[in-house]
Amino acid sequence: MRRLALLLPLVSLLGLAVACGQVQGEPSGADGIGARTGAPSAPASESSSPSESTTQPPAAADPCGLLSPAERSTAGLTSPGEPKSIGGAQACDYTETGSHGVTITLDETSGLDELRTGENESAEELRIGTHDALRVADAEADDGTCAVLLAAGESASVHVDVSNTNFTGTAEACTRADTVAELIEPKLPGGLS
């Protein structure tokens, strides 16, 4: 848990964020990550040039719109998420009472390079679809938390944080985080070809 707390305070505060985060207002509708499931992740002019799309941040979008009802079911989530603002970033919390919580956060200020420093250097590097990613978990602590951080441009990322309510089962939390990351990845800007 210490590694997660150093990497991303959102991970260690996930339980608190689920229980008492501030409700975010309506999304601004700016281009970036599709506010509706199936919406294009970027205008056609941006997606035609890989170098341009990798520099576009996710912009103010609706993180709760990244999972359709069918995708939520695939990820073991039975109800729509609740929009939140966590540390100034837009997020969506999904709470499965007595089981687990999932938070999807749009970080428009930190790309993977910024997140890959210090304690984060030990994070596992992944490729999910066309996006670079990091998986952060402490298997030894087995504290039931796991985070997958997806690149969404050079200076932006999308974080999928999972926390089991019994604070055990890190492997299970990582399986769930991987599943959610795989479901939202095609909707994110900044993928590599």
Automatic annotation (TrEMBL):
InterPro entries: DUF3558. Keywords: Signal. Residues 1-19 form the signal peptide. Pfam families: DUF3558. It comes from the Bacteria. Residues 27-93 are annotated as: Disordered. Residues 39-61 have a biased composition (Low complexity). This is DUF3558 family protein.
